[in-house]
Design goal:
This protein has a seven-stranded mixed sheet with strand order 12-13-14-11-10-16-17, with helices on both faces. Strands 7-6-5-8-9-19 form a six-stranded mixed sheet, with helices on both faces. Strand 8, helix 8 and strand 9 form a beta-alpha-beta unit. The chain has two domains: 2-229 and 425-448, Aldehyde Dehydrogenase, Chain A, domain 1; 233-406, Aldehyde Dehydrogenase, Chain A, domain 2, CATH 3.40.309. The longest helix has 20 residues, at 23-42. With 454 residues, the chain is α/β, with parallel strands linked by helices. Helix 2 (45-61) runs antiparallel to helix 4 (78-96), helix 3 packs across helix 4 (78-96) and helix 4 runs parallel beside helix 5 (137-148). It is globular and about 80 Å long. It has helices spanning 23-42, 45-61, 63-74, 78-96, 137-148, 162-174, 189-198, 208-220, 243-255, 275-287, 300-315, 347-350, 366-374, 389-398, 433-439, and strands spanning 2-7, 10-19, 104-107, 115-122, 125-130, 152-157, 182-184, 201-205, 225-228, 233-237, 265-271, 319-322, 337-340, 357-363, 378-379, 381-385, 403-406, 422-423, 426-427, 441-448.
Length: 454
């Protein structure tokens, strides 16, 4: 099987073509990583910290090259690509300090002399399966905490982001990361399944269907697994909100990077009198979004699924308020799109489409808005727009979402805080921040009692 990666803005541009190595190669790579893990952990906190710092420096030194590669391989707008490279370096630096964090605690024994210790230790080899939409940042926020606490890692990136992942591994090796500590293997389903079957701890980000299969396979082996899956994210706009600001935030969250973020807004819920002014302001704001902010979707299949969903909704009575068409140009582009009157059971209101499309929904009051927002099988991020702190806090307490952002776009992540969703959006422990350090380690309780004697 050949893994190919094409430029979404110019499909005639072949970025990379490599042969998938097959399941046996994955198992061999995991074996080499397991051999390397003992020495990597034994090297100590200072050595691991220095190695992660050097990787951060290598990313910074090659920032322009990496930015261009992200733009070319996954179609990310230039400003967002620059931001991702900077964020990637920052994540490596953040976790470079983690080896010096306490790895446990000392407790008093129930009776008599002695010590009770809890200590956290790495599992061994982390199997990482990552998507294409953040081709450097997501592999980094999975690999960096795992390496910091003494695991080694084998990464299988999405085929569409293979060149970015391979280049990151090359930079890590050039920065002095020991052989076998971080391995990147191109591949598809066969390689992914083999990695889940061989690793000691598994972290996955991708589609809901594949993620559920990963969780089933890993838990069946008794292996710790975290999975970040789909998100059908809502934005609630209250009548007292700054409507122009809210529209700007929503346009960015709907159409930024063509809506290809798990935190993108796909449902806009306008409360009461906010509906008409928000409708007008959001149509205007989406009309101002251009290719420097939106860009192409990742593939022809993705484009066709999006346009098909719009046509289907329109056939069922929905109104296209803006967008909905495919520009006549090279590349897989879709206009930023907003629809109204979409039937309740239409897929655009029930499924994640991963594109620059949102539906506008009316709600009589905050209670109805929260019911609408929570009416989803998976919710990662929800935004609330209101000048009232009381209203925002009341909404935050009642919303089923892993992340709630007030007067801000739903699309945005702080890498030093836990990241994850509600219901079917996530499985297992949170990613990022200190939570990731716990996920990649197992807790051990150690009892130390006196040996006795004189």
């Amino acid at each position: 099987m050949t893994i190919t990666s094409l430029n979404p803005a110019d499909p005639a541009d072949l970025v990379l073509a490599v042969e998938a190595p097959g399941a046996q190669a994955v198992r061999a790579a995991v074996g080499r990583a397991r051999t390397a893990q003992a020495g990597w952990h034994a090297a100590g906190a200072a050595a691991r910290s220095a190695a992660l710092t050097r990787i951060a420096e290598a990313v910074e030194a090659h920032a322009d090259e990496l930015t261009a590669l992200i733009v070319r391989e996954v179609g990310k707008p230039l400003a967002e690509a620059r931001g991702e490279v900077a964020r990637t370096a920052a994540i490596w630096r953040y976790y470079a300090q983690a080896p010096f964090e306490p790895s446990g605690a000392v407790h008093e024994p129930a009776a008599g002399p002695g010590l009770l210790l809890t200590r956290r230790r790495p599992y061994g080899v982390a199997g990482l399966i990552t998507p294409w939409n953040f081709p450097l940042a997501i592999p980094t926020w999975k690999a960096a905490p795992g390496l910091a606490v003494g695991n080694t890692a084998v990464l299988k990136p999405a085929p569409e982001a293979t060149a970015c992942a391979l280049r990151l591994a090359e930079l890590a090796a050039a920065a002095g990361l020991p052989e076998g500590v971080l391995t990147v293997l191109p591949g598809g389903a066969e390689e992914g399944e083999a990695l889940v079957d061989a690793a000691d701890v598994v972290s996955f980000t991708g589609s809901t269907g594949v993620g559920r299969a990963v969780v089933h396979a890993a838990t069946g082996r008794g292996v710790p697994v975290q999975a970040e899956l789909g998100g059908l994210n809502a934005a609630l706009v209250l009548p007292d909100a700054d409507i122009e600001q809210a529209a700007a935030h929503l346009a960015a969250a709907i159409a930024g990077y063509a809506g290809q973020k798990c935190t993108a807004t796909s449902r806009v819920i306008a409360v009461g009198e906010a509906y008409e002014p928000l409708r007008a302001a959001l149509v205007k704001a989406l009309g101002l979004v251009d290719d420097t902010a939106c860009g192409p979707v990742i593939s022809a299949a993705a484009r066709d699924r999006l346009t098909g969903a719009v046509a289907s909704a329109r056939a069922e009575g929905a109104t296209v308020l803006t967008g909905g068409a495919v520009p006549e140009r090279a590349g897989w582009y879709v206009e930023p799109t907003l629809l109204a009157d979409v039937p309740a059971e239409h897929p655009l209101r029930r499924e994640e489409f991963f594109g620059p499309i949102a539906v506008l929904l009316p709600a009589a009051d905050l209670d109805e808005a929260i019911v609408l927002a929570n009416d989803t099988p998976h919710s990662l991020a929800t935004s609330v727009h209101s000048r009232s702190l009381d209203t925002a806090l009341a909404a935050a307490d009642r919303l089923d979402a892993g992340m709630i952002r007030v007067n801000a776009p739903s699309s945005g992540v702080d890498f030093h805080l836990p990241f994850g969703g509600a219901k079917g959006a996530s499985h297992g422990d949170r990613e990022q921040g200190r939570a990731a350090l716990d996920f990649y380690t197992a807790s051990r309780t150690v009892t130390l009692l006196p040996a006795g004697g004189a």
